[in-house]
Amino acid sequence: MAITVSLVALFGLVLYFLLRAGNLTYGSAFIATGFGFFLASTGAATPINQLTNSVIDAFSNL
Question: Are 37 and 8 in contact (CB under 8 A)?
Answer without folding.
Answer: no
